[in-house]
Design goal:
Blueprint: H1 4-12, H2 16-19, H3 22-38, H4 42-59, H5 63-84, H6 89-112, H7 115-122, H8 128-157, H9 166-197, H10 213-232
Protein backbone atom coordinates (compact mmCIF):
# COMPACT_ATOMS: atom_id res chain seq x y z
CA UNK A 1 0.00 0.00 0.00
CA UNK A 2 1.32 3.44 -0.91
CA UNK A 3 1.87 6.07 1.76
CA UNK A 4 0.09 8.55 -0.53
CA UNK A 5 -3.10 6.65 0.31
CA UNK A 6 -2.83 8.05 3.84
CA UNK A 7 -2.75 11.59 2.42
CA UNK A 8 -5.86 10.79 0.43
CA UNK A 9 -7.64 9.69 3.61
CA UNK A 10 -6.60 12.92 5.33
CA UNK A 11 -8.03 15.09 2.56
CA UNK A 12 -11.24 13.18 1.83
CA UNK A 13 -12.13 11.98 5.35
CA UNK A 14 -15.05 13.38 7.34
CA UNK A 15 -14.69 11.92 10.83
CA UNK A 16 -14.69 13.93 14.06
CA UNK A 17 -10.89 13.93 14.13
CA UNK A 18 -10.80 15.31 10.59
CA UNK A 19 -12.81 18.30 11.81
CA UNK A 20 -10.45 19.08 14.68
CA UNK A 21 -7.81 21.74 14.14
CA UNK A 22 -4.30 20.69 13.20
CA UNK A 23 -2.63 22.41 16.18
CA UNK A 24 -4.79 20.49 18.66
CA UNK A 25 -4.03 17.15 16.96
CA UNK A 26 -0.31 17.92 16.86
CA UNK A 27 -0.27 18.87 20.55
CA UNK A 28 -2.36 15.85 21.52
CA UNK A 29 -0.04 13.56 19.55
CA UNK A 30 3.00 15.01 21.32
CA UNK A 31 1.37 14.53 24.73
CA UNK A 32 0.33 10.97 23.90
CA UNK A 33 3.79 10.00 22.66
CA UNK A 34 5.37 11.48 25.80
CA UNK A 35 2.94 9.40 27.88
CA UNK A 36 3.67 6.28 25.82
CA UNK A 37 7.41 6.69 26.41
CA UNK A 38 6.91 7.08 30.16
CA UNK A 39 4.34 4.31 30.49
CA UNK A 40 5.45 1.05 32.15
CA UNK A 41 2.08 -0.72 32.30
CA UNK A 42 0.58 -2.72 29.45
CA UNK A 43 -2.83 -2.25 31.07
CA UNK A 44 -2.69 1.42 29.99
CA UNK A 45 -1.10 0.88 26.60
CA UNK A 46 -3.46 -1.86 25.45
CA UNK A 47 -6.68 0.25 25.67
CA UNK A 48 -4.90 3.08 23.84
CA UNK A 49 -3.77 0.59 21.18
CA UNK A 50 -7.34 -0.67 20.69
CA UNK A 51 -8.80 2.84 20.64
CA UNK A 52 -6.28 4.02 18.05
CA UNK A 53 -6.97 0.93 15.94
CA UNK A 54 -10.72 1.62 15.98
CA UNK A 55 -10.21 5.28 15.07
CA UNK A 56 -7.91 4.31 12.21
CA UNK A 57 -10.49 1.82 11.00
CA UNK A 58 -13.09 4.61 11.02
CA UNK A 59 -10.80 6.80 8.90
CA UNK A 60 -10.64 4.11 6.21
CA UNK A 61 -7.66 1.92 7.17
CA UNK A 62 -8.68 -1.70 7.61
CA UNK A 63 -6.82 -3.90 10.15
CA UNK A 64 -4.92 -5.55 7.30
CA UNK A 65 -3.85 -2.17 5.90
CA UNK A 66 -2.83 -1.03 9.38
CA UNK A 67 -0.67 -4.12 9.80
CA UNK A 68 1.43 -2.90 6.87
CA UNK A 69 2.61 0.02 9.04
CA UNK A 70 3.08 -2.04 12.21
CA UNK A 71 5.41 -4.73 10.87
CA UNK A 72 8.68 -2.85 11.31
CA UNK A 73 8.07 -1.49 14.84
CA UNK A 74 6.61 -4.84 15.87
CA UNK A 75 9.57 -6.88 14.62
CA UNK A 76 12.34 -4.56 15.78
CA UNK A 77 10.80 -3.85 19.19
CA UNK A 78 10.53 -7.61 19.75
CA UNK A 79 14.15 -8.19 18.70
CA UNK A 80 15.33 -5.32 20.88
CA UNK A 81 13.30 -6.28 23.93
CA UNK A 82 13.81 -10.04 23.81
CA UNK A 83 17.32 -10.52 22.45
CA UNK A 84 19.18 -7.31 23.36
CA UNK A 85 17.59 -6.44 26.69
CA UNK A 86 16.40 -9.93 27.65
CA UNK A 87 12.85 -8.98 28.58
CA UNK A 88 9.98 -11.45 28.74
CA UNK A 89 6.29 -11.55 29.51
CA UNK A 90 4.66 -8.27 30.56
CA UNK A 91 7.86 -6.23 30.24
CA UNK A 92 8.37 -7.37 26.66
CA UNK A 93 4.72 -6.63 25.91
CA UNK A 94 5.19 -3.07 27.19
CA UNK A 95 8.14 -2.51 24.83
CA UNK A 96 6.18 -3.82 21.84
CA UNK A 97 3.06 -1.82 22.71
CA UNK A 98 5.12 1.33 23.13
CA UNK A 99 6.57 1.05 19.62
CA UNK A 100 3.34 0.07 17.88
CA UNK A 101 1.12 2.56 19.73
CA UNK A 102 3.51 5.44 18.99
CA UNK A 103 3.36 4.55 15.29
CA UNK A 104 -0.44 4.34 15.48
CA UNK A 105 -0.58 7.81 17.05
CA UNK A 106 1.46 9.35 14.25
CA UNK A 107 -0.47 7.39 11.63
CA UNK A 108 -3.74 8.66 13.08
CA UNK A 109 -2.40 12.21 12.87
CA UNK A 110 -1.31 11.73 9.25
CA UNK A 111 -4.56 10.09 8.15
CA UNK A 112 -6.79 12.80 9.65
CA UNK A 113 -4.74 15.93 8.94
CA UNK A 114 -3.70 17.10 5.46
CA UNK A 115 0.02 17.77 5.41
CA UNK A 116 -0.50 21.39 4.36
CA UNK A 117 -2.40 21.99 7.62
CA UNK A 118 0.36 20.32 9.62
CA UNK A 119 2.99 22.65 8.16
CA UNK A 120 0.65 25.58 8.61
CA UNK A 121 0.40 24.81 12.33
CA UNK A 122 4.17 24.32 12.62
CA UNK A 123 4.71 27.66 10.91
CA UNK A 124 3.24 29.36 13.98
CA UNK A 125 6.02 28.21 16.28
CA UNK A 126 8.95 27.42 13.97
CA UNK A 127 10.98 29.75 11.72
CA UNK A 128 9.52 30.15 8.26
CA UNK A 129 12.69 28.88 6.55
CA UNK A 130 12.57 25.66 8.58
CA UNK A 131 8.94 24.94 7.69
CA UNK A 132 9.76 25.69 4.03
CA UNK A 133 12.54 23.08 4.07
CA UNK A 134 10.31 20.51 5.78
CA UNK A 135 7.47 21.19 3.35
CA UNK A 136 9.65 20.85 0.24
CA UNK A 137 11.31 17.71 1.58
CA UNK A 138 7.99 16.05 2.37
CA UNK A 139 6.61 16.95 -1.05
CA UNK A 140 9.71 15.64 -2.80
CA UNK A 141 9.59 12.27 -1.04
CA UNK A 142 6.60 11.04 -3.01
CA UNK A 143 8.01 12.31 -6.32
CA UNK A 144 11.36 10.71 -5.55
CA UNK A 145 9.78 7.37 -4.60
CA UNK A 146 8.08 7.16 -8.00
CA UNK A 147 11.27 8.05 -9.87
CA UNK A 148 13.33 5.50 -7.94
CA UNK A 149 10.83 2.76 -8.69
CA UNK A 150 11.02 3.54 -12.40
CA UNK A 151 14.83 3.59 -12.25
CA UNK A 152 14.99 0.21 -10.51
CA UNK A 153 12.71 -1.34 -13.13
CA UNK A 154 14.88 0.11 -15.90
CA UNK A 155 18.04 -1.38 -14.34
CA UNK A 156 16.42 -4.82 -14.13
CA UNK A 157 15.11 -4.68 -17.70
CA UNK A 158 18.56 -3.80 -19.02
CA UNK A 159 20.26 -6.66 -17.20
CA UNK A 160 21.87 -4.54 -14.51
CA UNK A 161 20.77 -6.89 -11.74
CA UNK A 162 21.70 -10.57 -11.67
CA UNK A 163 21.27 -13.08 -8.87
CA UNK A 164 24.52 -14.85 -9.78
CA UNK A 165 26.84 -11.89 -10.34
CA UNK A 166 27.81 -10.04 -7.14
CA UNK A 167 30.16 -7.59 -8.87
CA UNK A 168 27.51 -6.50 -11.37
CA UNK A 169 24.99 -6.05 -8.57
CA UNK A 170 27.44 -3.87 -6.62
CA UNK A 171 28.12 -1.71 -9.67
CA UNK A 172 24.38 -1.40 -10.38
CA UNK A 173 23.70 -0.49 -6.73
CA UNK A 174 26.33 2.27 -6.85
CA UNK A 175 24.82 3.63 -10.04
CA UNK A 176 21.34 3.41 -8.59
CA UNK A 177 22.31 5.33 -5.42
CA UNK A 178 24.17 7.96 -7.44
CA UNK A 179 21.20 8.50 -9.73
CA UNK A 180 18.91 8.61 -6.70
CA UNK A 181 20.97 11.42 -5.15
CA UNK A 182 21.07 13.44 -8.38
CA UNK A 183 17.36 12.88 -8.93
CA UNK A 184 16.58 14.05 -5.38
CA UNK A 185 18.57 17.27 -5.84
CA UNK A 186 16.98 17.96 -9.22
CA UNK A 187 13.45 17.27 -7.97
CA UNK A 188 13.88 19.51 -4.95
CA UNK A 189 15.20 22.41 -7.01
CA UNK A 190 12.54 22.07 -9.72
CA UNK A 191 9.77 21.82 -7.14
CA UNK A 192 10.99 25.00 -5.46
CA UNK A 193 11.05 26.95 -8.73
CA UNK A 194 7.60 25.67 -9.70
CA UNK A 195 6.22 26.85 -6.35
CA UNK A 196 7.79 30.30 -6.88
CA UNK A 197 6.21 30.55 -10.33
CA UNK A 198 2.85 29.73 -8.78
CA UNK A 199 3.10 32.57 -6.27
CA UNK A 200 4.79 30.89 -3.31
CA UNK A 201 6.74 33.47 -1.29
CA UNK A 202 7.75 31.51 1.78
CA UNK A 203 5.72 30.50 4.81
CA UNK A 204 2.47 28.57 4.83
CA UNK A 205 -0.67 30.45 5.70
CA UNK A 206 -3.25 28.94 7.97
CA UNK A 207 -6.10 27.28 6.09
CA UNK A 208 -9.49 28.38 7.31
CA UNK A 209 -12.03 25.73 8.19
CA UNK A 210 -14.96 25.49 10.53
CA UNK A 211 -14.15 23.48 13.61
CA UNK A 212 -15.70 22.83 16.98
CA UNK A 213 -13.83 24.01 20.06
CA UNK A 214 -15.39 21.09 21.94
CA UNK A 215 -13.64 18.59 19.67
CA UNK A 216 -10.27 20.25 20.22
CA UNK A 217 -10.85 20.39 23.97
CA UNK A 218 -11.92 16.75 24.28
CA UNK A 219 -8.93 15.61 22.24
CA UNK A 220 -6.46 17.49 24.43
CA UNK A 221 -8.26 16.39 27.59
CA UNK A 222 -8.02 12.69 26.70
CA UNK A 223 -4.33 13.02 25.84
CA UNK A 224 -3.62 14.93 29.06
CA UNK A 225 -5.47 12.39 31.21
CA UNK A 226 -3.49 9.54 29.68
CA UNK A 227 -0.23 11.41 30.29
CA UNK A 228 -1.10 12.21 33.91
CA UNK A 229 -2.12 8.62 34.63
CA UNK A 230 1.19 7.31 33.26
CA UNK A 231 3.11 9.78 35.42
CA UNK A 232 1.15 9.07 38.60
CA UNK A 233 0.88 5.28 38.23
Amino acid sequence: MKVSFVDQLAVQGSTVLHRAEAWSKLLAAMILIAGIILCHHWELLLPLFLLAGILLWRTGLSPVQQLYFYLYPLIFSFLYGHYLVGLEGAQLLVIILRAVTAVMTLLLLMSTTPYIEVFSALNRVLPSVLTDVMFLTYRALFLLAGRLKELLVAIKLRGGASSGNLLRNLVSTGTYLGMAFLTAVDLNERSYWMLLLRGYRGGIEKTEKKTSGITNGVLLLVASIFFLVTVIW
